[in-house]
């Protein structure tokens, strides 16, 4: 009989390959086809980088990491610079209208829009942690859900923040701005309300694409938007003379062009499994998502508002229009320069979160080092250019000569600020987001910025009368102190511990492994419903309803046949005459609509192969136990919630596939009856434990139980001495440990326990001498360490062997010391010798010859 072995191959590969293979097999079983999906990304390395011990190692890894960062950062720099230029170009044209117009646009951009921008971008940055780590961990299907949740939250936030735009004029007057600036900035703010709703869609979309390394798409969209914006701005200002309303119209249009282009790209299907359409899951767990979004928002707002406050304080100085205009020009240049660092920062955020998600702590830390070096070099180069051309560049921004002179005086401070600001965002905004440190960095920002920097700046600017320069110097001192603190934090961070502990932070409250499990179950239900609809519509076009097809009756009544194939016939019923085919050896009923099998099936005394996969069976008849010659049984892809106890009487059974059902348990005596079973596939069910009798299947060679809810293995699992392949992957948070007796599986060649919560392998793991393939991906492993896991089965085995020998030696020494204390030196050495003999005789199944019986946590769970 021809069988589909899609579910029967061990998935001892990467997590991503496991997920794709599982989904493909499910689709094949359901008959709805499969869609190829490829996830090509250079964002995370296959394995962690080796330890760097000399200059040669550093140079080699620096070159490799630089290429990865620039491949991400190049388009990201262009994207950031293009989007920042939208507002900057608007301010440049405003500067050629009048000084008061430039001041008004600057106040709106820095205070009103800056306040909203910080909140919206900060809350959108939660996706950098969630999407970055989910993508690095291979949980691609979650990205679309997170994107939609962020859209919902940011749209509601935009509605609330629009009140700030509406009442901008009285708010600015209340905080002390001049009447002229407040009035004009208030009018311009009302014009700019559409922009905040563009932020609500754009920021999550950008983080969604960025986490998948689709930077080139973002760069292309931003480049086109910049060209359109520049041409339209020139047109409405130079030809139509629309003034500030024209500037607002063009700026809103440009931002919404970016939003529409990004959304169309996402909806087009080019993101593969990351976007599978709108879902009500976007409204689930909103509070957990909001908490992480708020943490990101607070951290980023504390930085953005810091420099917003600088422009605000300048409005309180004498000759406020000149001070604000000059400072806004410097802030524009600072923003343009910062876009280089923002591009590198965006790249390192992807690199850090992806490497931590893939459990590569050394690669994450080294990526940060390279990013800091690159950002520093770029910052110093830009600062040097500004100092050289300090007398020329102010002409490009403003007509007023007084403002130009103030800009020239501020240039040295601007150059210093660029150098510092090119490093500081890497240490705070991007690395904190990538590693999930939002809350900690927020506290650092509050202390350094607002408890130290702002008071010091106000002291220098107003009390000591240094003006704009004094305010800026004081606040830059706060930034400098913050950079020192964050550098110290990063140097002191244990990145291996950070990697293991990331599952215990806010990320885990949102990205739960159970959510992935539920996602698979939902996908299976949806596919099953879709198949049922297809079948129902097809059956409606046929006559006969539930009557048995005459052709089927003719086949079954033929007599004397050994093989019958009735697959893909949309059968709903089988005749009782089925049991009359006593000479039948092979029967294929797969891919039909059967809800039950007739009891007369027990009359097929010679039946050896039976395939009823991909039907609608909810139970099997108790008469199954009379099929004494049955060797191969495939009941996968049905709705079975249990297997009848009588199946244990099918003692000739060699292969049983009960995968993709709703089984909550197996028959208690299955192992006592199916003594000849060699292959057991029970994956994609809801099994929580194995019956103890399964340990009696001495002939079992292949056991696949992935994608269940298994809590543990029986303590006697070591009796399966013929077992060669064991797949326990993707039991998620349910499977936390393996028993020591697993080391008794002397013939085990392939073991997959990926996607679980296993922290430590059994001490006797080294005894699996024949183990060739080992998959431990996506476990919070502490022992063995990741570098040993990367070396495969042999590396893990040798590490555990040395660990065992050290434990035995320590136990022996303790025995000697204890014996000497109690009986003296001579008897102590005799005790030591006895300990060695005891260990040799025990075969290493108990640590140090201890006689205390082991606790059976698995049995405790059953009880």
UniProtKB/TrEMBL annotation:
The keyword Transmembrane applies. The keyword Lipid metabolism does not apply. It holds the Pfam family MatE. It is found in: Membrane. One of its GO terms (cellular component) is membrane. One of its GO terms (biological process) is xenobiotic detoxification by transmembrane export across the plasma membrane. PROSITE patterns: LRR. InterPro entries: Leu-rich_rpt, Leu-rich_rpt_typical-subtyp, LRR_dom_sf, MATE_euk, MATE_fam. Keywords: Coiled coil, Leucine-rich repeat, Membrane, Repeat, Transmembrane, Transmembrane helix, Transport. It comes from the Eukaryota. One of its GO terms (molecular function) is antiporter activity. It is a multi-pass membrane protein. Residues 843-863 are annotated as: Disordered. The chain crosses the membrane at residues 72-105, 111-130, 151-175, 181-203, 215-235, 255-280, 292-316, 322-348, 368-390, 440-459, 471-491. Residues 510-537 form a coiled coil. Belongs to the SHOC2 family. Leucine-rich repeat protein that likely mediates protein interactions, possibly in the context of signal transduction. This is Protein DETOXIFICATION. It comes from Brassica napus (Rape). The lineage of its organism: Eukaryota, Viridiplantae, Streptophyta, Embryophyta, Tracheophyta.
């Amino acid at each position: 009989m021809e069988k589909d072995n899609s579910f029967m191959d061990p998935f001892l590969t990467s997590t991503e390959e496991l997920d794709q293979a599982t989904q493909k097999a499910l689709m094949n079983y359901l008959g709805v086809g499969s869609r190829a999906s490829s996830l090509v990304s250079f964002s995370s390395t296959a394995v962690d980088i080796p330890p760097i011990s000399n200059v040669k190692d550093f140079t080699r890894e620096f070159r490799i990491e630089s290429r990865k960062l620039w491949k991400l950062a190049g388009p990201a720099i262009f994207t950031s610079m293009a989007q920042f230029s939208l507002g900057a170009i608007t301010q440049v044209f405003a500067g050629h209208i009048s000084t008061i117009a430039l001041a008004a646009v600057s106040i709106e951009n820095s205070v009103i829009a800056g306040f909203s921008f910080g909140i919206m971008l900060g809350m959108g940055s939660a996706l950098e942690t969630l999407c970055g780590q989910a993508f690095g961990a291979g949980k691609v299907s979650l990205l679309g859900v997170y994107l939609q949740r962020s859209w919902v939250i940011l749209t509601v936030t935009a509605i609330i923040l629009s009140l700030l735009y509406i009442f901008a004029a009285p708010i600015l007057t209340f905080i002390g701005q001049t009447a002229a600036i407040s009035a004009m900035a208030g009018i311009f703010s009302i014009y700019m309300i559409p922009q905040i709703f563009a932020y609500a869609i754009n920021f999550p979309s950008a983080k969604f694409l960025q986490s998948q390394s689709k930077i080139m798409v973002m760069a292309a969209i931003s480049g086109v938007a910049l060209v359109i914006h520049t041409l339209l701005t020139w047109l409405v200002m130079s030809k139509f003379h629309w003034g500030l309303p024209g500037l607002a119209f063009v700026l809103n249009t440009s931002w919404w062009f970016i939003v529409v282009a990004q959304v169309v790209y996402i909806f087009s299907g080019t993101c593969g499994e990351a976007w599978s359409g709108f879902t009500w899951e976007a409204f689930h767990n909103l509070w957990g998502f909001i908490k992480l979004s708020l943490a990101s928002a607070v951290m980023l707002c504390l930085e953005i508002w810091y420099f917003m406050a600088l422009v605000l304080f300048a409005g309180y100085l004498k000759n406020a229009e000149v001070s604000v205009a000059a400072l806004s020009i410097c802030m524009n240049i600072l923003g343009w320069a910062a876009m280089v660092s923002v591009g590198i920062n965006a790249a390192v955020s992807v690199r850090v979160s992806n490497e931590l998600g893939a459990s590569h702590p050394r690669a994450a830390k080294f990526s940060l080092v390279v990013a800091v070096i690159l950002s520093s070099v770029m910052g110093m180069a830009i600062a040097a250019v500004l100092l050289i051309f300090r007398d020329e560049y102010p002409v490009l921004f403003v007509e007023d000569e007084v403002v130009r002179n103030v800009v020239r005086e501020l240039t040295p401070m601007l150059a210093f600020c660029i150098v510092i600001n090119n490093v500081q965002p890497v240490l705070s905004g991007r690395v904190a987001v990538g590693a999930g440190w939002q809350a900690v960095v927020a506290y650092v920002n509050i202390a350094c910025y607002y408890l130290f920097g702002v008071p010091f700046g106000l002291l220098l600017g107003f009390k000591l009368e240094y003006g704009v320069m004094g305010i800026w110097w004081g606040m830059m001192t706060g930034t400098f102190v913050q950079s020192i603190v964050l550098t110290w934090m990063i140097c002191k961070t244990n990145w291996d511990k950070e990697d293991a502990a990331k599952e215990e932070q806010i990320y885990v409250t949102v990205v739960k492994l159970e959510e992935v499990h539920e996602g698979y179950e939902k996908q299976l239900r949806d596919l099953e419903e879709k198949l049922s609809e297809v079948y129902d519509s097809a059956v409606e076009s046929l006559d006969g309803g539930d009557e048995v097809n005459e052709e089927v009756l003719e086949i079954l009544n033929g007599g004397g046949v050994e093989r019958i194939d009735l697959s893909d016939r949309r059968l709903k019923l089988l005749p009782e005459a089925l049991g009359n085919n006593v000479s039948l050896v092979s029967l294929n009923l797969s891919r039909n609509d059967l809800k039950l099998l007739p009891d007369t099936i027990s009359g097929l005394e010679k039946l050896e192969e039976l395939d009823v996969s991909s039907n609608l069976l909810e139970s099997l008849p108790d008469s199954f136990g009379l099929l004494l010659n049955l060797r191969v049984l495939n009941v996968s892809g049905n709705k079975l919630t249990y297997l009848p106890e009588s199946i244990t009487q099918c003692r000739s059974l060699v292969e049983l596939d009960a995968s993709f059902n709703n089984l909550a348990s197996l028959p208690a005596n299955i192992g006592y009856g199916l003594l000849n079973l060699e292959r057991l596939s029970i994956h994609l069910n809801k099994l929580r434990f194995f019956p103890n009798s399964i340990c009696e299947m001495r002939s079992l060679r292949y056991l696949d139980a992935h994608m269940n809810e298994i809590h543990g293995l029986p303590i006697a699992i070591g009796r399966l001495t013929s077992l060669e392949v064991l797949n326990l992957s993707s039991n998620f948070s349910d499977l936390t440990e393996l028993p020591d007796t697993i080391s008794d599986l002397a013939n085990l060649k392939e073991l997959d326990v990926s996607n679980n919560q296993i922290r430590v392998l059994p001490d006797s793991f080294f005894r699996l001498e024949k183990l060739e393939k080992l998959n431990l991906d996506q476990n919070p492993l502490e022992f063995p360490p990741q570098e040993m896991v990367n070396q495969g089965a042999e590396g893990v085995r040798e590490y555990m062997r040395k660990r065992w020998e050290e434990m035995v030696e320590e136990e022996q020494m303790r025995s000697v010391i204890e014996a000497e204390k109690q009986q003296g030196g001579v008897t102590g050495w005799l005790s030591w010798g006895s300990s060695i003999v005891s260990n040799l005789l025990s075969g290493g199944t108990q640590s140090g010859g201890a006689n205390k019986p082991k606790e059976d946590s698995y049995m405790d769970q059953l009880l």
